[in-house]
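Thread: Modeling a multi-component assembly for a lab meeting

Hi all, long-time lurker, first post. My supervisor asked me to bring a structural picture of a complex we are working on to next week's group meeting, and I have zero experience with this. I have the sequence lines for every component (629 residues in total). Could someone generate the structure of the whole assembly? Inputs are pasted exactly as I received them:
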Amino acid sequence: MKVWGRRCAGLAMGLTAAWVAAVERFPPPDFESGHQLPLTSTPGARADWWQIVDLGLLAIGLAVATWLVHKRRSRKAVIVLMLGSLLYFGFYRAGCICAIGSIQNVALGLWQPGYVVPWTVLGFFLLPLIVALFWGRSFCAGVCPHGALQDAVLIKPLKVPHWLESGLRLLPWIYLGAAILLAATGSAFVICRYDPFVGIFRLSGGRIMIAVGVALLVLSMFVGRPYCRFLCPLGALLSLCSRFSKWFVRITPSECSKCRLCEDSCPFGAIHQPLPERPAESRRQARRRLGWLVLALPALVVLLGWAGSRIADPLSMYHPRVQLAEQVRMQAEDESLTLTDAVDAFYVQDGQVDRLYQEATAIRDGFEKGGWWLGGFLGLVIGLALVQHAMRHWREDYEADRAHCLACARCFDTCPYERQRRGLPCNPASPETEVTA
Amino acid sequence: MSDDRKADEKASRREFLKGGLRNLGLLAAGSLAGFAYGRSRNDGLVWQLDPRKCIQCGNCATACVLEESAVKCVHSYSMCGYCALCTGYFEPQPNALNTGAENQLCPTGAIERHFVEEPYFEYTIDEELCVGCGKCVKGCTMFGNGSLYLQVRHDRCVNCNECSIAVQCPAEAFSRVPASDPYLLKTREKPA
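Re: Modeling a multi-component assembly
Sure thing. I ran the full set together rather than chain by chain. Output:
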């Protein structure tokens, strides 16, 4: 008989209770030689004051970005700040802590009493939004490492057709709504799970997400900041705040001569061209269309709300308890199925099937209710986007799009008044002074 | 002239609206901050796994975003029986009770075995070699005192907002714990 068998023979009974903690099968010895037990080492987590450093750097970064864009008006300086943020928040801090992901912590903290938001995370969520309410998207311009990474590889921006751009700009809202629903129900942090760039910052991680990140970066060479414009959920919130900003990015430092030199300088499709006042007839038509749209808005909200409540149930499979309940149910219905690790662990830990089912049902109900909110919210967003399209304001000058301007400062150098102010040669069209590329 | 004034009025009305909405936004941000601050905490949160829930599925070794997992095996020496035949150290039915690689459960040979006094042996873990697969933990928990267990090591963990091991953990053993007290250690329970 092998040594193993001899030792284990007496333990055959113990096997069934294998998981029960603190089984003292072999009493710890009293050493005669006076042997001292080693201590279990517990290397500490990153000290708390580092969080204050992170938050401080965020605040400084936002202040400097705002100053560079509004006062210095220097693209070069913005690039330096951007690369600095990319190095610190991106590569050094490995992408966590991040303002984009903090949306989910705040949502989880608001809806799940069991979770408390660390105040630094709250700061990361609120500071960029508050700055956007006054000065626009300084965060996107110089502080966000995701934006910096995409901006750094942008070599030949192609123009996205207007209709496609307006459509794609709705995606961040959908992503935002779904992420809040999933975070608020305590299911998952999808923004972090499907973050395309964090794997690149860490140079490790899931193969699929790294591949997606690389693909997005290749796309970013030709389409300006695709993640920021068409996916980023924080970008959606920032665009909302930026709409009401007190001071905004001005293409020209003094006045606009409508020289059209800035027209193609924005790789993000965020420069509005002047619009002449339309004739009275077409205005009346537009007003009627607007009236219909406003009337249809509540119907759209309700319709999408209903659709949301239908779609929410499959989303609830993101919740670990719902997943587990589903696995337990399948296993109970078909005994021939092999036990998954999760079902195994469930029966070992408490095994109260009824309570698990109740929990899962409660979570699913929460999802259905959340689905109404999510759908209604998306209906409102889509409806308001349509209303905004119907309300085509007249505009005299070339202006930055308040919502979608990322404050990158590229357009400044194309403005002849700006060049005059800075003492640069006035013809930006010659190849040596071509700054738009 | 009157057209100009109309345009001015329109513009100032828009400015007024915008200002109102901005203040509304500030108010929302402020109340959110106030509400969330009431529930906020000063110290940060980090991930840790509860060894009492752990079922040693092996995901800790593979699911971490780091190439070398932040989860490692740790040893609660006060719980250890110091067995000569350690079921966390030896393969089932080992050929001999020595440090030969073919006898060891650990795929990387991260557990060191030292003789203390007859008949006791001490087992220590070389963290550089440990990959967090939990094979030894399984052996120790099934047949021994359960003194070997897994923990997130905070000198390695990058503290992702959503821990990717937690996502894959079948026992839901991962949770956020205060950064000031970041371990869930096993200790010897005093007999009642």
